[in-house]
Design a protein that fits this description.
This protein has 2 domains: 151 residues, Aspartate Aminotransferase, domain 1, CATH 3.90.1150; 265 residues, Type I PLP-dependent aspartate aminotransferase-like (Major domain) (Aspartate Aminotransferase, domain 2, 3-Layer(aba) Sandwich). The protein is built from 13 helices and 16 strands. The model has no long low-confidence stretch (mean pLDDT 95). The radius of gyration is 22 Å and the shape is globular. Helix 11 packs parallel to helix 13.
């Protein structure tokens, strides 16, 4: 069948007929917008609108779209090879990227295992923890985590997501049953209370002989509610796990590469995990790529065990195109002074979103690094709000009670101001003044 340049209406109609979008029913009529191009902080729609992207395409496009240096990294690699199996081979893009990741990550993380999505990076981390104990003759299969977390949609990753919002009820009897404690109450800027650690400590001590690892999102719980919790909680988790020799897995898929104002969110608590998961921002939104980093102790223990090898191997592991663009993305972080970029965004978001506190229906406004959140007191209507954002030339995708933004680092103050003003206007129009 020849390639056809579809009209907008044809495109939408064919999409509705054949494509199943994320977290959606094939029968829903939520608004759908056709994209023809994207550059910098902007997305161009087929209908002519040019939207400021406040979402970084689900947290991924660190440096914006169609970046000339990132494009060149892909193009140069494409002239050499698009892909080669990683069993028995290696190549410079993978070696270079692994060295960069080790250099910028917490000091104890020396080994890099590449995969092709964040969910798989979490699966890999969980398998590492289980094999770590098997290699020592122990059959530990439980993972301890905190409620309201999100770690991915594949089965093992989903098992450590929040039991309520993580769809556990739909897969009862199939998902592994894990251990959960309440979400930390002390927020990032709150004074610490030791009572906030009691539930976690009690659950850990009661089950520590069965726990393969503790897994959590450091400091920022993303899809589970955009909750920013106290670094002291994470410090105490690290101290407790270290005392009992239980690995700590830091899921930095959403928070890594500077999103919270530190290269990795665990740095807010000055802790080093034993295993760390990366994804989303790793390849700057170009080609899907993820990595699971671990300590030499984890890796050596696994490889000295009965299996002698780590039992995982994705077909597209360490894809050269993805590794090349990821390597260049990390270089750009430092060339562009990412810390200053994120600090500017944080300041602009703080001032731009502050007026929303006075609006009816707003429960909280919070900012950390390049993440800005307006939390409503009831779930938002995506079908109602998203077209209103598009009318104002901005792209945001609320979920639950949250209207949030996490823009690319190359965004400027005028663009942030327009995003924030659009959020204020839409909330005011929809809910009115308090």
């Amino acid at each position: 069948m020849p390639i056809t340049n579809y009209s907008h209406d044809q495109l939408i109609e064919l999409d509705r007929r054949h494509i199943w979008h994320p977290y959606s029913s094939i029968e829903n009529d939520n608004p759908l917008f056709a994209v023809v191009s994207a550059e910098g902080a902007y997305i161009q729609l087929q209908t002519g609108e040019r939207l400021i992207d406040g979402m970084s395409s689900w947290w991924s496009t660190l440096h914006g779209y169609n970046h000339p240096q990132l494009n060149r990294a892909v193009e140069d690699q494409l002239k050499k090879m698009a892909h080669v199996m990683f069993g028995g081979f290696t190549h410079e893009p993978a070696v270079k990227l692994a060295k960069q990741l080790v250099d910028i990550s917490p000091a104890k993380l020396k080994r890099v295992f590449f995969s092709d999505s964040g969910s798989v990076a979490v699966e890999v981390a969980m398998k590492m923890a289980i094999q770590f104990w098997q290699s020592q003759g122990q059959n530990r299969q439980k993972f301890l985590t905190i409620e309201k977390g999100y770690h991915g949609d594949t089965f093992a990753a989903m098992s450590v997501c929040d039991p309520v919002t993580g769809m556990h009820h739909m897969y009862t009897g199939v998902l592994m049953e894990q251990l959960f404690t309440p979400q930390p109450r002390c927020r990032f800027y709150d004074a610490w209370s030791d009572e906030d650690f009691n539930s976690f400590e009690s659950k850990f001590l009661a089950h520590q002989a069965d726990i393969a690892a503790v897994i959590l999102e450091p400091i920022v719980q993303g899809t589970g509610g955009m909750h920013f919790y106290s670094p002291t909680f994470l410090k105490k988790v690290r101290a407790l796990t270290s005392a009992f020799g239980v690995p700590l897995i830091a899921d930095e898929i959403a928070t890594g590469m500077g999103r919270t104002g530190r290269m990795f969110a665990c740095e807010h608590a000055d802790v080093e995990p034993d295993i760390m998961c990366l994804g989303k921002t790793l390849s700057a939104g170009y080609i899907t790529l993820a990595a699971t980093l671990c300590s030499d102790d984890i890796a050596t223990t696994i490889c000295d065990g009965k299996a002698g090898v780590f039992m995982h191997g994705p077909t597209f592991m360490a894809n050269p195109l993805a590794c090349s663009v990821a390597s260049k993305s990390i270089a750009l972080l430092f060339e562009n002074d990412w810390q200053l970029q994120v600090k500017h965004i944080e300041n602009w978001l703080n001032s731009g979103l502050a007026p929303c506190k006075q609006l009816k229906g707003v429960a909280d406004v919070r900012v950390l690094g390049s993440i800005g959140v307006v939390e409503m007191d009831s779930p938002v209507d995506l079908k109602l709000l998203q077209p209103e954002f598009v009318k104002r030339g901005i792209w945001l995708r609320p979920f639950g009670k949250l209207i949030y933004m996490i823009p690319p680092y190359i965004i400027n103050k005028d663009e942030i101001d327009k995003l924030c003003a659009g959020v204020y206007e839409v909330i005011d129009r929809t809910y009115g003044h308090a």
